[in-house]
């Protein structure tokens, strides 16, 4: 099912308590469609609905499952129009994908953990399933019979996962993951530099830490809580690299040394109405995380219609960053521009690779002229 949440506000972010909402749902004409039956009728418009906000600034609406076309998998455009009491109209459009088979396999990934469910009318159902993982060459790397719902850590060598039950089947490709598998914190604390990696799935990864241009730590692990003394006035950089399926991924972080930098935490009310008095809690700390006494603070406020345009404040003093990581790209595609050929340096490679002992290369690179003879 699809739940819509409506919230009306003016240009200053203040709630609007009256108005009418018009909703139209249409099949998207520019997206791929899947049909799971011999016949399916797809109209241009499948649902239209209007309602008044009724003096509320927010409202929820659940689209009925019956409006969507059964035995299909397709995208739908949901067009919403809001008309306030002053006849000012605002339009909003979103796209939702609906798989309207009786039962379907649902996949979700969080921090490298793949969760598999079989859904019937949006509800998870207990069912026996066969889960198979394949590598990029379509070879089986694992196969297991499990009870859904089921969670498993992603395998670095697996590229696709296939799930089969008595009533449904589904396939998941790791290239569909748009979030990083690894989380990390790279920070200073009590005179130390720390790198803490959050890796619930236990996916193996490489790490490299630099102080300035020098590598001070590296390794291949599945968990990491690294710390070292923060000496001198150097910046730090780090890189995490891991394999997922047939793709190599990297995450970089920077922890510069800033001589006179301060950090400020501000806690205030989420919304402040005109004429209202609000308390603002401000904490100022130095680069070591220690409180700063007698800090001179300038505060200003403006409504949301002016946008977020903070003034540029010059911070004087020395600022040093560690050496950045520049990774060489490798790809097996022969048509990729960075795999283009270049002339071979015969003087360099003839002895190093033993090419001067191969008849073919003697013909290509003769000293004066090439001749070849065989005894008869």
Question: What is the strand and helix layout of this fold?
Answer:
Blueprint: E1 2-7, E2 20-27, E3 34-35, E4 47-52, E5 58-63, E6 72-83, E7 89-99, E8 103-110, E9 113-120, E10 123-125, E11 127-134, E12 140-148, E13 150-153, E14 160-164, E15 169-173, E16 183-189, E17 192-198, E18 205-211, E19 214-221, E20 224-229, E21 236-244, E22 247-255, E23 257-258, E24 262-267, E25 281-286, E26 319-320, H1 346-352, H2 359-364
Antiparallel strand pairs: 1-5, 2-4, 2-6, 3-6, 6-7, 8-9, 9-10, 9-13, 11-12, 11-14, 14-15, 16-17, 17-20, 18-19, 18-21, 21-22, 23-26, 24-25
**Given the helix and strand composition, which structural class is it?**
mainly beta
Euclidean distance between termini CA atoms: 85 Å
Number of helices: 2
Sequence of secondary-structure elements = EEEEEEEEEEEEEEEEEEEEEEEEEEHH
Query: How many β-strand runs?
Result: 26
What is the 3D shape? extended
Biggest sheet layout: 5 strands, antiparallel
The helix content is under 10%
Rg estimate, integer Å:
31 Å
Mean pLDDT: 84
* Strand percent estimate: over 45%
Poorly predicted spans:
none
Give structural notes.
With 376 residues, the chain is mainly beta. Helix content is 3%, strand content 45%. It has two helices and 26 strands. The chain has helices at 346-352, 359-364, and strands at residues 2-7, 20-27, 34-35, 47-52, 58-63, 72-83, 89-99, 103-110, 113-120, 123-125, 127-134, 140-148, 150-153, 160-164, 169-173, 183-189, 192-198, 205-211, 214-221, 224-229, 236-244, 247-255, 257-258, 262-267, 281-286, 319-320. Strands 2, 3, 4, 6 and 7 form a five-stranded antiparallel β-sheet that branches. The protein is extended, with a radius of gyration of 31 Å.
């Amino acid at each position: 099912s699809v739940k819509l949440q409506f919230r009306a506000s003016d240009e200053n972010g203040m709630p609007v308590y009256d108005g009418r909402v018009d909703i139209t749902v249409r099949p998207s004409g520019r997206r791929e469609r899947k049909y799971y039956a011999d016949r399916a009728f797809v109209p241009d418009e499948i649902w239209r609905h209007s309602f008044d906000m009724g003096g509320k600034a927010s409202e929820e609406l659940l689209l009925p499952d019956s409006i969507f076309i059964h035995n299909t998998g397709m995208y739908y455009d949901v067009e919403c129009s809001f008309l306030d009491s002053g006849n000012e109209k605002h339009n909003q459009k979103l796209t939702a994908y609906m798989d309207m088979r009786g039962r379907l396999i649902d996949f979700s990934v969080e921090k490298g953990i793949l969760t598999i469910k079989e859904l019937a009318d949006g509800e998870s159902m207990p069912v026996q399933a066969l889960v198979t993982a394949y590598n990029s060459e379509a070879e089986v790397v694992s196969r297991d019979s499990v009870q859904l719902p089921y969670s498993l850590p992603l395998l670095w060598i697996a590229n696709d996962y296939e799930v089969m039950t008595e009533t449904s089947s589904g396939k998941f490709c790791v290239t569909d993951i748009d979030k990083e598998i690894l989380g990390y914190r790279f920070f200073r604390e009590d005179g130390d530099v720390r790198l803490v990696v959050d890796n619930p799935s236990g996916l193996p990864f490489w790490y490299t830490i630099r102080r300035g241009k020098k590598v001070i730590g590296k390794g291949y692990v599945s968990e990491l809580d690294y710390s070292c003394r923060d000496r001198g006035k150097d910046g730090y950089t780090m890189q995490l690299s891991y394999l997922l399926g047939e793709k190599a991924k990297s995450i970089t972080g920077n922890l510069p040394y800033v001589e006179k930098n301060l950090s400020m935490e501000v806690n205030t009310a989420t919304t402040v109405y005109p004429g209202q008095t609000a308390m603002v809690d401000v904490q100022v700390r130095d680069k070591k995380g220690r409180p700063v006494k007698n800090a001179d603070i300038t505060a200003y406020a403006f409504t949301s219609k002016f946008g977020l345009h903070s003034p540029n404040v010059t911070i004087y003093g020395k600022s040093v960053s560690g050496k950045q990581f520049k990774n060489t790209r490798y790809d097996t595609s022969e048509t990729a521009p960075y795999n283009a050929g270049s002339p071979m340096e015969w003087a360099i490679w003839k002895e190093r690779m033993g090419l001067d002992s191969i008849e073919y290369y003697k013909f290509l690179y003769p000293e004066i002229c090439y001749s070849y003879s065989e005894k008869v």
